[in-house]
Amino acid sequence: MTSRRRPALGVWAYFAIAFSLGAYFTFAAVQGSYGVFRRVEINAEAQTLRTDLAALELKVTRMENLTLRLSDTYLDLDLLDEQARSVLGMLRSDEIVVR
C-alpha cells in the first residue's frame, strides 16, 4: 500500500499569502489612491478645470478690453459719447427720447 501524504502546512500558507498579496495589489491598482478609477476622476476634474479656465480667460480678456477703453491712453469715441450724454444730459438734434 502506498500512503498519500497531505501537502505541508507551509505550502498552504505560501499560497494563501501569495493569493492575499495578489488580491491586495489588484484592488489597489483598480481602486487605490493611484488606481484606475482615481485616474478617471482626476482626468474628468482636469477637463472641468480646463473649461473653467477658458471661461475665466475670456472674462479676463473682456475686462482688460474694458479697462483699456477707460484708460487715459485710449480714446473710445462711443464710450466718450455715451458718458458725455449721460453726464451732460444732452441729445443730438436727430434723436428721439422715450421715457
UniProtKB/TrEMBL annotation:
Keywords: Coiled coil. Residues 39-66 form a coiled coil. InterPro entries: FtsL/DivIC (IPR007060). This is Septum formation initiator. It comes from Thalassovita taeanensis.
